[in-house]
């Protein structure tokens, strides 16, 4: 029997504007994300700077608006000064985070110029693990400073006259995590972040700062960490970070399909923590969230842990998860959740862009291809614009081991008032079809096209052939959505089992 759900939609019920930075990604010096990922000078598609054109083209197709760099765990042991200037003068070093010999070929200038050529906004991170205030302020000066100061003049001497104008800066990375080089408790980190942020804004008052939040909702210090860190940094920072990864554990498919419920709770709890600090400070300022690491990552079941990695060189294959149709459905559902919090989540980064838990894969000297997770992200990035709508979803729930009761259907939508374009995203988490009634009294909607991603039941296999096979079987372009119009004017669509479906169309006030 087909299940039923209802979605109430009206263009006047709004969450907030959709910031284009919500469709960010992440490039860390980890595994093959940089070397043989975005950069491979001997590749047949390499440009004059050594960056792969095929990867850049897929990055544009993916719709990535912003890329975070250089880490991640990597940044907490990184001396940025070692990665600027003539490449032949740079020395390789041991990256303690991922136990890799870093060749130091790509650094700040190379990355920022790649991002500039590709029209992608950069998001930079500073090292607050093994370094501190002076190095952070110096990097801002190097990147954004005008001629006539020490570090800006060094940039100019290295061949870059014009400042890069980087707006968004992370004050370290996952400093709550014991795995982090230079790990600190909340008081230590909060004081350091406040002083570093103050110095960085004295160099360039226009920048936005991201304080490190919890690395996971399941950290022992979660909640207390946010409140303590923000008690020191509230008046200095603009955002607090969130990181979350999801995976299917022990065959618990139901919990995996309900992962976005956990993401939703995580966001709500961090917002509550931030607002509590603001209330105590009697501040009208609202701290927003930079969800600058999120994805499906088989962290517990496939990754041996950083400490168990052998010391390697030559861009080792680390954390190259292969994704399935099921993973793609979950990624789409996580994207729904981010859109539903657009008022408090203006920044997000799918971690990562290439090879490392990524939607894009490459073979050294060979082709680049799309993983199944590529498709829902690209569809959302292309069509979600304007304002995120505040939908009301009435759907049955089912019980999961990890997340308790979760709804069978989730929904998100955006509306661009300038041209009336509507994007509607629906997830069916159940193994049966669901009829969804879209109630839009007071508004007229027309659905004209779409994309359906369905889950599979077979193990994912590495390589472009299997990825193409999944795309052929489980990613379907909808040229003319099959809809039923009820007597009251509402629209009914049928969702396939375990699916994420994106509809395009128009909406207008009736």
UniProtKB/TrEMBL annotation:
Enzyme class: hydrolase
The keyword Hydrolase belongs to this UniProt entry's keyword annotation: yes
Entry EC no(s): 3.2.1.55
GO molecular function: alpha-L-arabinofuranosidase activity
Domain of life: Bacteria
Catalytic activity: Hydrolysis of terminal non-reducing alpha-L-arabinofuranoside residues in alpha-L-arabinosides
SUPFAM superfamilies: (Trans)glycosidases (SSF51445), Glycosyl hydrolase domain (SSF51011)
Domain Alpha-L-arabinofuranosidase C-terminal stretches: 292-499
Gene3D superfamilies: Glycosidases (3.20.20.80), Golgi alpha-mannosidase II (2.60.40.1180)
UniProtKB keywords: Carbohydrate metabolism, Glycosidase, Hydrolase
Annotated GO biological process: L-arabinose metabolic process; polysaccharide catabolic process
Keyword hit for Cell division: no
Pfam families attached to this UniProt entry: Alpha-L-AF_C, ASD1_dom
Complex formation: Homohexamer; trimer of dimers.
Family: Belongs to the glycosyl hydrolase 51 family.
Name of protein: non-reducing end alpha-L-arabinofuranosidase
Species of the source: Cellulomonas soli
